[in-house]
Protein backbone atom coordinates (compact mmCIF):
# COMPACT_ATOMS: atom_id res chain seq x y z
CA UNK A 1 0.00 0.00 0.00
CA UNK A 2 2.77 2.45 0.94
CA UNK A 3 4.73 1.62 -2.17
CA UNK A 4 1.68 2.18 -4.36
CA UNK A 5 0.94 5.52 -2.66
CA UNK A 6 4.54 6.64 -3.18
CA UNK A 7 4.42 5.62 -6.84
CA UNK A 8 1.15 7.49 -7.41
CA UNK A 9 2.52 10.58 -5.66
CA UNK A 10 5.67 10.57 -7.80
CA UNK A 11 3.64 10.02 -10.95
CA UNK A 12 1.33 12.91 -10.10
CA UNK A 13 4.31 15.17 -9.33
CA UNK A 14 5.92 14.34 -12.67
CA UNK A 15 2.65 14.95 -14.50
CA UNK A 16 2.12 18.26 -12.71
CA UNK A 17 5.62 19.36 -13.68
CA UNK A 18 4.97 18.63 -17.33
CA UNK A 19 1.59 20.32 -17.34
CA UNK A 20 3.30 23.71 -17.11
CA UNK A 21 5.26 23.06 -20.30
CA UNK A 22 3.88 24.43 -23.51
CA UNK A 23 4.24 27.09 -26.12
CA UNK A 24 2.85 30.51 -25.48
CA UNK A 25 2.02 32.96 -28.19
CA UNK A 26 4.31 35.82 -29.12
CA UNK A 27 4.45 38.52 -26.48
CA UNK A 28 2.54 41.65 -27.45
CA UNK A 29 3.24 45.14 -26.18
CA UNK A 30 0.32 47.15 -24.87
CA UNK A 31 -1.05 49.61 -27.38
CA UNK A 32 0.67 52.97 -27.41
CA UNK A 33 4.02 51.70 -26.07
CA UNK A 34 7.39 51.36 -27.74
CA UNK A 35 9.51 48.30 -27.02
CA UNK A 36 12.91 49.91 -26.49
CA UNK A 37 13.44 49.35 -22.76
CA UNK A 38 15.77 50.99 -21.73
CA UNK A 39 17.43 51.13 -25.16
CA UNK A 40 17.59 49.13 -28.39
CA UNK A 41 19.79 46.01 -28.40
CA UNK A 42 22.29 45.61 -29.91
CA UNK A 43 23.32 49.24 -29.81
CA UNK A 44 22.80 50.51 -33.39
CA UNK A 45 26.04 52.52 -33.14
CA UNK A 46 28.08 49.32 -32.70
CA UNK A 47 26.52 47.24 -35.47
CA UNK A 48 28.43 47.04 -38.74
CA UNK A 49 26.57 46.16 -41.94
CA UNK A 50 27.27 42.79 -43.52
CA UNK A 51 29.40 43.58 -46.60
CA UNK A 52 30.03 39.98 -47.63
CA UNK A 53 26.56 39.00 -48.77
CA UNK A 54 26.52 35.26 -49.44
CA UNK A 55 30.27 34.85 -48.87
CA UNK A 56 31.24 32.81 -45.84
CA UNK A 57 34.83 34.03 -45.93
CA UNK A 58 36.09 30.97 -47.77
CA UNK A 59 37.19 30.87 -51.37
CA UNK A 60 35.33 28.56 -53.69
CA UNK A 61 37.09 25.82 -55.66
CA UNK A 62 36.78 27.87 -58.84
CA UNK A 63 38.78 30.73 -57.33
CA UNK A 64 41.58 28.50 -56.00
CA UNK A 65 42.15 26.52 -59.22
UniProtKB/TrEMBL annotation:
It is a lipid-anchor. Residues 22-65 are annotated as: Disordered. Residues 48-58 have a biased composition (Polar residues). It is found in: Cell outer membrane. It comes from the Bacteria. It comes from Limibacillus halophilus. InterPro entries: LptM_cons. Keywords: Cell outer membrane, Lipoprotein, Membrane, Palmitate, Signal. Residues 1-20 form the signal peptide. This is Putative small lipoprotein YifL.
